[in-house]
Amino acid sequence: MAGNDPDGPALGTGTTRGSADYSVDGLLNAFGLIGERLLEERAARRVRVFGHVAKVRPWKRRFAYLTLSGAGHTVEARCPFEMAPREGEAIVFEGEVRLTPSRLQPGLDVQIIGMPAGTWTPGVETAETLALPVRERRPLRWVLDRAGPEGLLILGTETAVRDTLSALAAGGSSSVPASEIIGMSDAETIGRQVARHVGSRAPAGIALVRGGDDAGLSAFDSPDLVRALLSLETPFYTGLGHAHRVTLADKAADAAFMTPSQLGAAVADLCAAMEERNSLRERVAQLETRLGGVPRKPALRTLIGLGLLILLAALALLTR
Q1: 140-267 CATH
Q2: Any alpha helices (H) in the chain, and if so which ranges?
Q3: Torsion region of 32: left, alpha or beta (phi above 0 gives left; psi -120 to 50 gives alpha)
Q4: Which residue among 43, 68, 89, 160 is least crowded, i.e. fewest CB within 10 A of its CB?
Q5: Quick check: do 20-119 and 140-267 share a fold?
């Protein structure tokens, strides 16, 4: 099922991994929460919603809660912290619909649990050119937790790689991922060079970055390129264009960022959180050592033990 609103984007009936396309108002109408439809006439549970980001509310560096607005209504969404879009952007949000009893009024609250899948331009039709396979998507944090920043390989044009690394440095990160300048003029060249670097370096994840909105960006709409990227079985992330166009590669990526700079800023935020966790672990180890060295001083042992509990609680919050 697909929704269509006179005030929303021109939406087709094509789906992404079983997703159905809706505008914000179309989604609520499909669930029977506005208009004349009955609640039993359910919309698809996996959806892509086209809306404007009215509000972003981060929560403990774990999640970001979003309010997406449509022609006359809003819907709530939740995504990983590092994937949060900017307020005012027109985004495509993909995820699972969750219905819960409302605490404030009779009826149900609607929340979409997922992540931004790109951006859209009001009035411009979006079309699927490839049925994307169902697979587990790995957030950027997954790569950094397992291999550190050095496990991420950034591939792109010279300007885009520079913008990505500049944003990372501006975020205060002392760790620098590996990077390579590659040609991005056509899909075949991109696929060949990405495969070569992944084969020689075996990174934990790759980031494809390219700025601009010229005709060359259409290479990332190539089904052949997307199939080649998926066949590598390596998590990949995109930072393409100038925050107003979504490509097929963005939709297939483990996570898509609006620009190369936004991808670099996300890596910087995650690196800062990792460094904070490592610092806390060191302090915990030091307190454990001190605690073991004062067996005959109960008051001091109690004080150190209390500090140890506080640090462990803080560490648990940072690693959730």
Answers
A1: 3.40.50.261
A2: 24-30, 140-147, 158-170, 187-201, 223-231, 248-252, 260-292, 298-319
A3: left
A4: 89
A5: no
Note the pLDDT tens digit of each residue in 118-131.
777 765 544 444 56
DSSP labels for 80-128? EGGG---TT-EEEEEEEEEEEE-SSSSSEEEEEEEEEEEE--TT--B--
Task: Give the mean model confidence (pLDDT) for residues 147-175.
Answer: 90
Confidence of residue 39 (pLDDT cuts 50, 70, 90): very low
Two tokens, residue 286: 């030091």
Distance CA 180, CA 313 (A): 40
**Which pTM value belongs to this model?**
0.56
Q: What is the sign, positive or negative, of the torsion defined by CA atoms of 281, 287, 290, 296? A: negative
Q: Which residues of 159-178 are buried (b: 16+ CB within 10 A; e: fewer)?
A: ebbbbbbebbeebebeeebe
Domain ranges for the chain: 20-119, 140-267, 272-319
Instruction: Give the pLDDT of residue 199.
Output: 95
The residue whose two tokens read 């950034």 is 154
Secondary structure class of 221 (helix, strand, coil): helix
Between 92 and 72, residue with greater pLDDT: 92
User: With respect to CATH, is domain 20-119 assigned 3.90.226.10?
Assistant: no
Phi then psi dihedrals of residue 125, to 5 deg: -75, 140
